[in-house]
Amino acid sequence: MKRSNNWFPFGCGEETPGADKMFIFHYAGGSSSAFRHWAAHRRPVACIPVELPGRGTRVSESCLEHIDELMERLLPELAAAIADAPFYLYGHSMGAAIAFEAACRLRSEWGLRPEKLFVAGRHAPHRPDPSSFRIEMGDDALIAELRRLNGTPQEVLDNEELLRFLLPTIRSDYRLHESCRYRGQKLDVPLVAHAGKLDFEAGPETMAHWRDATDKAFELKAFEGDHFFVQRLGEDYVSELLRDATYRLRA
């Protein structure tokens, strides 16, 4: 039976008792529904998309725009959902920054150590952001950024009324992302970085710098596609990700 929790709208892995758990953090402008199909099947690792306040199923709530406030509210929920199970953290784009911060704080503040951290489509925390876009540039620049990243459906970009409705939440995500600050944190868990070969700001060369974010094993994998290769590769990507999760990296 699924336990109701607004942070985990598709369940906390109750349908696969005894399975490891993978908590999944979405990209800016997305929501847990982007990974709903990951949670829709029985898998060797239970996939648990995380819903942030103000997004998706929590659209009526206020968005959180600072990483410290998010961690204060999120970590107790994560700790309860982990419930002594082996667990992994996965994040795409903005979600990679959130997953890294959660991994660091779960370890230092809660004594909880993920089996691995998976990151995709985002520069390493100690490296400068290669994108020239900053949220203070305004709506027109934000829309141009969404077009450049090629992840927002064209019908949304062409619908001015719908786009203006969505922009406040997207702006909040970018503010949340820009609030992430590197303070010298270094993990003691294996880290796997996934890159789209055509992702011009988070391609394999950029993602390789994640090796300096951990003292343990590191692996870099490149996939066909651009920034949103994760979504476009579909089930093939999910299957490879979960195989990587259960494969033990050499330290």
UniProtKB/TrEMBL annotation:
Highest taxon, organism lineage: Bacteria
One GO term of the biological process aspect:
lipid biosynthetic process
Question: Domain Thioesterase: where?
Answer: 22-231
Which family does the record claim for this protein? Belongs to the thioesterase family.
Q: Which PANTHER family match?
A: S-ACYL FATTY ACID SYNTHASE THIOESTERASE, MEDIUM CHAIN, THIOESTERASE
Name of the protein this chain belongs to:
Surfactin synthase thioesterase subunit
